[in-house]
């Protein structure tokens, strides 16, 4: 099951050329871009691990692409997302975020139902990938 | 974003016919590069070899641009440069201009200058250098990376120095990402030569070695006038003469750093002018506030020293 998170999530994955243009757009707005990765794609897992440092003072997407290439080499079987952070007063939040790398195979999520008092049912979802320890997920 | 689209569109257009003609003057006009040249001539006194080289590079890039319209493929020219010259000869100033020029010629995408020294590139412990250097390179992407006093990167006396690691990363980027970044090294001539001797890889990757000549008295005078005008001061006629004399004497003193020494001297002149006005008290006119008098100049230390002292040589 294809994971859909962040901006453009229902479009096909962006090509490098398209990523570059998005980054250019972010930089032109004065946002700082950074890369994050994880192998726990639960939708509530908000805080992913950061790859390197946030790239303040970047002027051109080429710098980010250099890092992205490295990140993809280091974590080919992880999700990698790009986040653009707006540091303007009272924004101070990510403004744009999308997935730039995904594992070759995504097993998806299981819905677990819990019987509760009075015939109530509680639902929760569980990623199949997280059955294995961190770092060994999404490996064949 | 629109500029990126423009380039792709332009690349898609059909190549011109073999017998088509392109008006080079029109291309030159369109690039608005003349403006930059004019500004260069106005703001930078002397430096003929440097200006000539800049014109040559501009011509090369323009011709390259036209060649591409005829579908004549050629590699992107390497524009990594090395600026050598004594202190205060305008290396940093020219590097800044270079970034603008290359931007106008569409060689670099952003046209900003990132100015660094050894401290910004080389780390203090193992594993610190590579991320640090890469961080700087990332920041400079799309513009010009200016490494001042580049020879400090290489310390032959310490074989475990981390500078070497930084050099290797730089070399790799200079070779592989020529489209993204222009590297300009700067430093004193003799030490730069020694640096290249021990790092032949660097020498071969740098296409343009530009030497910045020292200024003569006349040029330094014009520079001082430009600097004063920028800050809304003028010399009185006597002060002008006195300052010429000052430059002549100062040049023979040790640690003369061309335009930088002139800047410092002018700062001291402003100090003395202010002290003089203050001491006189009473009302002042705009003219008085602007004018630097001969006595401000003549109070300088160099007039007390024997002229023939050449202790530095």
Automatic annotation (TrEMBL), chain A:
<dbReference type="GO" id="GO:0016984">
    <property type="term" value="F:ribulose-bisphosphate carboxylase activity"/>
</dbReference>
<comment type="function">
    <text>RuBisCO catalyzes two reactions: the carboxylation of D-ribulose 1,5-bisphosphate, the primary event in carbon dioxide fixation, as well as the oxidative fragmentation of the pentose substrate. Both reactions occur simultaneously and in competition at the same active site. Although the small subunit is not catalytic it is essential for maximal activity.</text>
</comment>
<keyword id="KW-0113">Calvin cycle</keyword>
<keyword id="KW-0120">Carbon dioxide fixation</keyword>
<comment type="subunit">
    <text>Heterohexadecamer of 8 large and 8 small subunits.</text>
</comment>
<feature type="domain" description="Ribulose bisphosphate carboxylase small subunit">
    <location>
        <begin position="4"/>
        <end position="103"/>
    </location>
</feature>
<dbReference type="InterPro" id="IPR036385">
    <property type="entry name" value="RuBisCO_ssu_sf"/>
</dbReference>
<protein>
    <recommendedName>
        <fullName>Ribulose bisphosphate carboxylase small subunit</fullName>
    </recommendedName>
</protein>
<dbReference type="InterPro" id="IPR000894">
    <property type="entry name" value="RuBisCO_ssu_dom"/>
</dbReference>
<dbReference type="GO" id="GO:0019253">
    <property type="term" value="P:reductive pentose-phosphate cycle"/>
</dbReference>
<dbReference type="Pfam" id="PF00101">
    <property type="entry name" value="RuBisCO_small"/>
</dbReference>
<comment type="similarity">
    <text>Belongs to the RuBisCO small chain family.</text>
</comment>
<keyword id="KW-0456">Lyase</keyword>
<dbReference type="InterPro" id="IPR024681">
    <property type="entry name" value="RuBisCO_ssu"/>
</dbReference>
TrEMBL record, chain B:
<dbReference type="InterPro" id="IPR000470">
    <property type="entry name" value="CbxX/CfqX_mono"/>
</dbReference>
<dbReference type="Pfam" id="PF17866">
    <property type="entry name" value="AAA_lid_6"/>
</dbReference>
<keyword id="KW-0067">ATP-binding</keyword>
<dbReference type="GO" id="GO:0004252">
    <property type="term" value="F:serine-type endopeptidase activity"/>
</dbReference>
<dbReference type="InterPro" id="IPR003593">
    <property type="entry name" value="AAA+_ATPase"/>
</dbReference>
<keyword id="KW-0378">Hydrolase</keyword>
<dbReference type="InterPro" id="IPR027417">
    <property type="entry name" value="P-loop_NTPase"/>
</dbReference>
<dbReference type="InterPro" id="IPR050773">
    <property type="entry name" value="CbxX/CfxQ_RuBisCO_ESX"/>
</dbReference>
<feature type="domain" description="AAA+ ATPase">
    <location>
        <begin position="77"/>
        <end position="216"/>
    </location>
</feature>
<keyword id="KW-0547">Nucleotide-binding</keyword>
<dbReference type="GO" id="GO:0016887">
    <property type="term" value="F:ATP hydrolysis activity"/>
</dbReference>
<dbReference type="InterPro" id="IPR041627">
    <property type="entry name" value="AAA_lid_6"/>
</dbReference>
<dbReference type="Pfam" id="PF00004">
    <property type="entry name" value="AAA"/>
</dbReference>
<dbReference type="GO" id="GO:0005524">
    <property type="term" value="F:ATP binding"/>
</dbReference>
<dbReference type="InterPro" id="IPR000641">
    <property type="entry name" value="CbxX/CfxQ"/>
</dbReference>
<protein>
    <submittedName>
        <fullName>CbbX protein</fullName>
        <ecNumber>3.4.21.53</ecNumber>
    </submittedName>
</protein>
<comment type="similarity">
    <text>Belongs to the CbxX/CfxQ family.</text>
</comment>
<dbReference type="InterPro" id="IPR003959">
    <property type="entry name" value="ATPase_AAA_core"/>
</dbReference>
